[in-house]
Structure formats: structure tokens, C-alpha cells
């Protein structure tokens, strides 16, 4: 879809549909709405007086063929109480607009944000529209494979007093960010038979074409040479060999230490010998969402030409039960030499992440942040509303929180206490990979902490926020792609630690 800004008045713009915006109202006061009311012979006043439209968030009023307007349809969109309007209000409203029948039947749509026309709001508007209207049609057939929306162009109208350059930049950032999140959704939704570790490597190779990103892939022989006992142990049960993918983007001087992003890439997780229950196991094709987030993030960073050096590390494997699978009670030797007794083979994500975190030290990073669908226990901390974050550096925690506030991809910090560290100590090995049900999310992070080098680190657990159970304005039911906007915002705001 083409997204742009144009200098034009609502009356003269020739888009199929014009959208105007208002906060809650009991009578029409703003000039654009007064003009529309006059052009429609009081039609808008009738809707307001009859309380059919009051400007509440998510309300829409439609006026067809008003006099003096080039467009054939005008939609007035409510934003709710003026004092409560934020960028996410705009994002939510545009998410709903993207599925409005008046919009989807229009080839071109032009929006006048009026008093709410800021760069942050326009970026949010583009994100909301693209994310809200996104549908995954790849595996459908016949009529179900066709996109029902006719919209090809989304424009933002600027009056003559505004410079279009900075607003055009905001549109570009919004489009790149939304397309990054859509990529995460599509990768996470891909059936595991279409995204085995080897197929995933081929897909990544295609995705980074045309971007200034270098790629290196370790195969099973090289993984063994690196002594990645965690990744090898998880992969043992599958006929599919593991892969370890390193992507590098250099947008700054070689002297700048890189930001390393680590993403869990378990392309299907049965739980291994500690087999999961059958209910909802089909969702375990998305246990590689962390890897999708970091891959889409580095591509977005390249498209945005961010002045940073970024490395992504993604260990890729299946976790399957078989005669060769790692068993409860087995002991694995990790890349850093520590030994781990396997208590539960379904606690596999921390094993592959541990080797990746240790490998990160090769890059002498300024910071390492990992993201993963790591623990079912996350559901009982924040539910579907936000992601737990943990780490060892106050500045990094603050930056994640600031990015969360800006994007409405919510995070909440949890502590790691010595109690949790003790929980992960082993009796016959250095560590256990599961400390039981108590404080599961924190204990898993305490395990990861053993593989962190002498650098700032944070862990983001997106289990459950990676899936939307019901559907929200710009997050349809299913895979959410959460984490991408959080990371991109953090990187756009990044200052050297």
C-alpha cells in the first residue's frame, strides 16, 4: 500500500473517502465539522443530536456525497475524551478504520487529523491502519485467498502552514515499522512443515536480500565445534538438524560496540520426552517468535538506516520426542563449560538461549537483549497484557520501559533474587534446567544469567503476549508480532551506554 502526505484541503482532495477526526462532542464546534455539516444540510448535526454519534473512541459517522466535496464519502471518526487522546488512541482508531466497509471499498483514503496532526500521531496512524488491516491469506484457497480490501493508497492531508518533509518521514517510519511487525506475524504463523530450521535459513536469506546485512550460518558440525551442548541436546530428538544464524548490520563506525539481539528459534516445540498436552499444541509452531522479532528488527534497522551496529543471534531447532531425544535426568555440557541436569525437556528454550548468550561475548557487545516465548508462567504474572522483563542494568531497563511507553507494547520489570538463583542450582550438575513451578519466569531468567558475560543484559519474555486470544483494534486474533515495535523504538532512541 502507498502511504504519503499531501498538501490539500478536505473539500478539494479527490480521494474516494475523506476521514475527519473529533474528540467527544455534544455539539459541532470545530470548523472542518461545521463545513461538513453545512455541506450535508445538517446531516452531522442530526446524528449528534440524536446521539447516534458522539465522538466516542471507535465511533464512526458516514456522510455520502456532501455538496462541495470532491470525495464521494466523508467519514467522521471519534477519538474519545480530548484529555485522554494519545498516539495509541490514534493507532487503535486507525486499526478499526482499516476494516471499516466504507474504507475497504475505497481505492484511496485521505485523512485530516486536524489538531491531532503531529509526527508521532501520523506514525501511529500508519502503523494502526496497516496492522489492523493485515490478514494472513497464504494458506487459504479460492475466494478465501483474496484480500477483500480495495484500499491502495492512504494519504494524510496537511494545511499550507505545515512542512511536509517531517510528516513524510513519520509516514515512512510508520510503514517500515508496521511491515516489520507484519513480517513477525507471518513468520510466527507459518506451519512448522514450511519452516524447519533449514527452510527458515533459506527464508532469512531471501528476506535480507537488498539490505546491508551480512549473514553467517553454523550447521550441525560447526555447532558441535562450538560445543553448544544446549542447542545440540534440544535438537537430538529431531531428524531436522539445528542451525545457528548470525546477522550483522553495520550502520556506524567499526569502533562502535554492537547491540546484540538474541531470539529463541524453536520452530516446533512438542516438549520433547516431557510431552506437552495435545490441547493447543498446534500453537507451538510459533515458539520461534523471538527469532522472528530480532530478524525483522535488524531488517527494519537497515531500512531506517539507523546509525548503529547490530548483531542478531538465532539458534534454530525443533524439540521432538524420539529414541535419540535428550531424556530427563541427562546432563548436558554447555558452551561455557557449565553442566546442566535436565529435569524437564520442555524447558528447552533456556538451553538454546544459554549457548547463544555465551556466543554473544565474541562480539564484545555494549548490550545484549534476548527475547523469547520462554515460560508458561508468564501468563500468571501479566496475562495477555504485557511482557515481563528482567536484567542486570538499570539504564537498559529504563530504555525498554521508555520504548514500551512510546509504543504501547507494555513491559514490567521483575527482580532476580538469590532465592531464584538457588532454585536453579543442581545436586549432581552445576545447574538444573527447571526449578519447578514457583516463580517460573524469574527462575528461568536466573538460569540464563549464568551465561551472561560482563556486559549489560536484559531478557524479554513474550510468552502469551505473542498470541491475541480475541482480537483488538490493530491486533487481530492470532499472532501479534509484539516486540518488534518495542525494539525498533528502543533502537531509534538509542544512546551509547
Characterize the structure shown.
This protein is α/β, with parallel strands linked by helices and about 500 residues long. It has two domains: about 1-135, Leucine Aminopeptidase, subunit E, domain 1, CATH 3.40.220; about 180-490, 3-Layer(aba) Sandwich (Aminopeptidase), CATH 3.40.630.10. It is built from 16 helices and 20 strands. It has helices spanning about 30-40, 45-50, 85-95, 100-105, 120-130, 165-190, 195-205, 220-225, 230-235, 290-305, 350-360, 380, 395-405, 420-425, 440-450, 485-490, and strands at about 1-5, 15-20, 60-65, 75-80, 110, 155-160, 215-220, 245-250, 260-265, 265-270, 310-320, 330-335, 340, 365-370, 385-390, 410-415, 430, 455-460, 465-470, 480. Strands 7, 8, 9, 10, 11, 14, 15, 16 and 18 form a nine-stranded mixed β-sheet that branches. Strands 1-6-5-2-4-3 form a six-stranded mixed β-sheet, sandwiched between helices. A three-stranded mixed β-sheet has the order 12-13-17. Strand 15, helix 13 (about 395-405) and strand 16 form a beta-alpha-beta unit. Helix 5 runs parallel beside helix 6 (about 165-190) and helix 9 runs antiparallel to helix 11 (about 350-360). The radius of gyration is 25 Å and the shape is elongated. The model has no long low-confidence stretch (mean pLDDT about 95).
Amino acid at each position: 500500500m502507498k502511504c504519503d502526505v499531501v498538501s490539500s484541503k478536505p473539500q478539494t482532495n479527490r480521494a474516494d473517502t475523506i476521514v475527519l477526526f473529533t474528540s467527544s462532542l455534544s455539539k459541532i464546534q470545530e470548523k472542518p465539522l461545521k463545513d461538513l455539516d453545512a455541506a450535508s444540510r445538517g446531516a452531522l448535526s442530526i446524528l449528534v443530536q440524536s446521539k447516534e454519534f458522539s465522538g466516542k473512541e471507535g465511533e464512526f459517522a458516514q456522510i455520502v456525497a456532501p455538496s462541495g466535496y470532491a470525495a464521494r464519502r466523508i467519514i467522521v471518526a471519534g477519538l474519545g475524551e480530548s484529555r485522554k487522546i494519545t498516539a495509541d488512541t490514534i493507532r487503535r482508531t486507525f486499526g478499526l478504520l482499516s476494516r471499516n466497509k466504507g474504507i475497504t471499498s475505497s481505492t484511496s483514503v485521505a485523512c485530516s487529523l486536524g489538531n491531532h496532526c503531529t509526527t508521532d500521531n501520523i506514525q501511529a496512524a500508519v502503523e494502526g491502519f496497516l496492522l489492523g488491516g493485515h490478514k494472513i491469506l497464504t494458506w487459504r484457497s479460492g475466494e478465501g485467498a483474496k484480500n477483500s480490501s480495495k484500499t491502495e493508497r492512504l494519504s494524510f492531508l496537511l494545511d499550507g502552514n505545515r512542512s511536509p518533509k517531517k510528516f513524510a518521514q513519520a509516514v515512512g517510519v510508520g510503514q517500515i515499522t508496521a511491515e516489520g511487525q507484519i513480517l513477525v506475524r507471518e513468520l510466527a504463523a507459518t506451519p512448522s512443515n514450511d519452516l524447519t530450521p533449514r527452510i527458515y535459513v533459506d527464508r532469512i536469506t531471501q528476506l535480507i536480500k537488498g539490505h546491508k546485512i551480512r549473514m553467517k550460518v553454523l550447521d550441525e558440525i560447526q555447532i558441535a565445534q562450538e560445543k553448544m551442548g544446549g542447542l545440540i541436546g534440544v535438537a537430538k530428538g529431531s531428524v531436522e538438524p539445528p542451525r545457528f544464524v548470525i546477522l550483522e548490520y553495520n550502520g556506524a563506525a567499526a569502533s562502535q560496540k554492537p547491540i546484540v539481539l538474541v531470539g529463541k528459534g524453536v520452530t516446533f516445540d512438542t516438549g520433547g520426552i516431557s510431552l506437552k498436552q495435545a490441547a493447543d499444541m498446534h500453537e507451538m509452531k510459533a515458539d520461534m517468535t523471538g527469532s522472528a522479532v530480532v530478524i525483522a528488527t535488524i531488517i527494519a534497522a537497515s531500512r531506517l538506516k539507523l546509525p548503529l551496529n547490530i548483531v542478531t543471534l538465532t539458534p534454530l531447532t525443533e524439540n521432538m520426542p524420539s529414541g535419540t531425544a535428550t531424556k530427563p535426568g541427562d546432563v548436558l555440557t554447555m558452551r561455557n563449560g557449565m553442566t546442566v541436569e535436565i529435569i524437564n525437556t520442555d524447558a528447552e528454550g533456556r538451553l538454546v538461549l544459554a549457548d547463544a548468550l555465551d556466543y554473544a561475548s565474541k562480539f564484545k557487545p555494549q548490550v545484549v537483549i534476548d527475547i523469547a516465548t520462554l515460560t508458561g508462567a508468564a501468563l500468571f504474572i501479566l496475562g495477555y497484557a504485557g511482557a515481563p522483563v528482567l536484567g542486570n542494568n538499570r539504564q537498559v531497563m529504563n530504555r525498554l520501559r521508555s520504548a514500551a511507553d512510546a509504543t504501547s507494547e507494555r513491559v514490567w520489570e521483575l527482580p532476580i533474587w538469590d532465592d531464584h538463583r538457588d532454585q536453579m542450582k543442581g545436586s549432581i550438575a552445576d545447574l538444573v534446567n527447571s526449578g519447578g513451578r514457583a516463580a517460573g519466569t524469574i527462575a528461568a531468567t536466573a538460569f540464563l544469567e549464568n551465561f551472561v558475560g560482563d556486559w549489560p543484559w536484559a531478557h524479554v519474555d513474550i510468552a502469551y503476549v505473542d498470541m491475541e486470544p480475541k482480537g483488538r483494534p490493530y491486533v487481530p486474533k492470532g499472532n501479534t508480532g509484539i516486540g518488534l515495535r518495542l525494539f525498533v523504538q528502543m533502537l531509534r532512541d538509542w544512546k551509547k551506554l
